[in-house]
Design brief:
94 residues; 57% helix; globular; mainly alpha
Length: 94
């Protein structure tokens, strides 16, 4: 019992509040998918990755998915095509 009490603070220190990852966009249009993957905003987000920090990688993956969706939807609107989905996803506020 004493061991459990001594280990509890150590176990709790390892529990971090991990960010839920935003779902990747479904990109069916070839032209807009290519534009979204080459977009400057997506590349900027990807450069911030720290591969040694798991929480950071989850955050970067989520931010990259959000950036991909925004660029893809902008491209679809610019070409007059219908955007998939109906409700805009909830955005995280820092």
């Amino acid at each position: 019992m004493k061991r459990l009490l001594l280990l509890t603070p150590l176990l709790m220190a390892g529990c971090t509040g991990l960010v839920p990852i935003a779902a990747p966009p479904l990109m069916s249009d070839e032209e807009c998918r290519a534009e979204a993957t080459r977009a400057r905003d997506v590349r900027i987000v990807s450069r911030e990755a720290n591969f040694e920090n798991y929480a950071n990688m989850r955050q970067i993956q989520s931010d990259r998915n959000v950036a991909l969706r925004e660029v893809y939807d902008t491209c679809m609107r610019a070409h007059g095509r219908a955007i998939s989905g109906g409700v805009e996803p909830i955005r995280r506020i820092d």
